[in-house]
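Quick one:
INPUT:
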């Protein structure tokens, strides 16, 4: 399927203070897309946050909050900043067009609208958006295991740290390292080691199943499980579930001095972000506890708070 074929079935938010304009755009788009609508700026922002549309068709001139202010607010919020906006307006001067594009709009459509032109412009923006989303997924995913990579982990940790800081909620982190993985590779071969890394990543996903949990490959045979809004007890539960998942998988590790099957060591730290604390503090604490788990005989978890 080509990118152009994929430029359908989008979720489009139409924002206009006149119902008849919304009806015209709805009629133009409804066969190819799901169409949401809002009659003013504040409602448009609320829908953008809760429904996360693929594209917004935005009237520039509205009473109260106008299209430019809506556009600015969309780009300022991380959860809506990646939604492309097409301005739809009766204003036609080059200055109006420049102002819309300067506000961050991806495109500009003049009223009265032509249905075929609207459909074509929407398809183009959807194609660009889907290509960008696919590229972003690619640069944030670890190719071997399919879980998040280090870059994705760093981004999410920063975001969750700020978010949980605002609400004074805990952020927990598990640093997980496979025991004696060098011996595993030496015994079973590197390709078998690769397969096993993917299996362990799958076990982690099953152990940390909430929507906001993030399993990431931190590097080599070390993984991180980020658990926003979960306290230490909850995090211990995830650690235990992971160990149980690995017991069930029962992957043999004949060369391990620790056990006949593949095991992991885990460091678990949990913090409520304070004014002068940094996300790196959480990572450092979990890493130090992981080191203790290794030194203490492996196949175990260690907890602690800083
Ligand atoms: N197959 C495979 N092996 C990897 C990959 N990344 C890292 N490794 C191996 O993971 C091993 C890590 O070894 P060490 O850091 O010495 O640790 P360990 O042998 O697991 O020992 P402990 O952590 O002390 O229990 C090295 O042999 C790396 O080659 C990978 O993508 N695939």
């Amino acid at each position: 399927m080509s990118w152009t074929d994929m430029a359908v079935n989008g979720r489009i938010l139409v924002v206009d203070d006149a119902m008849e304009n919304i009806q015209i755009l709805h009629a133009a788009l409804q066969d190819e897309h799901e169409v949401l609508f809002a009659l003013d700026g504040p409602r448009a922002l609320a829908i953008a946050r809760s429904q996360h549309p693929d594209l917004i068709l935005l009237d520039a001139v509205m009473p109260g909050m106008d299209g430019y202010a809506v556009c600015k607010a969309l780009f300022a919020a991380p959860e809506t900043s990646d939604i492309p906006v097409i301005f739809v307006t009766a204003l036609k001067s080059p200055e109006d067009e420049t102002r819309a594009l300067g506000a961050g709009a991806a495109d500009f459509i003049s009223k009265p609208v032509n249905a075929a032109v609207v459909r074509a412009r929407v398809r183009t923006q959807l194609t660009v958006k889907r290509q960008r989303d696919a590229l972003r997924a690619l640069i944030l995913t670890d190719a071997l295991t399919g879980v998040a990579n280090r870059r994705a982990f760093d981004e999410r940790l920063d975001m969750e740290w700020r978010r949980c800081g605002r609400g004074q909620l805990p952020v927990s982190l598990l640093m997980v390292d496979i025991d004696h993985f060098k011996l595993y590779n030496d015994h079973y071969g590197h390709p078998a080691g690769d397969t096993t890394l993917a299996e362990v990543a799958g076990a982690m996903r099953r152990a940390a199943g909430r929507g906001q949990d993030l399993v990431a490959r931190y590097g080599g045979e070390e993984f991180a499980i980020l658990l926003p809004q979960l306290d230490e007890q909850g995090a211990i539960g995830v650690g235990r579930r992971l160990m149980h998942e690995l017991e069930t998988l029962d992957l043999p590790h004949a060369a391990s001095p620790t056990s006949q099957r593949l095991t992991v060591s885990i460091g678990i730290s949990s913090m409520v972000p304070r004014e002068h604390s940094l996300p790196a503090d959480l990572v450092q604490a979990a890493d130090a506890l992981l080191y203790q788990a290794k030194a203490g005989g492996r196949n175990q978890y260690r907890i602690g708070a800083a």
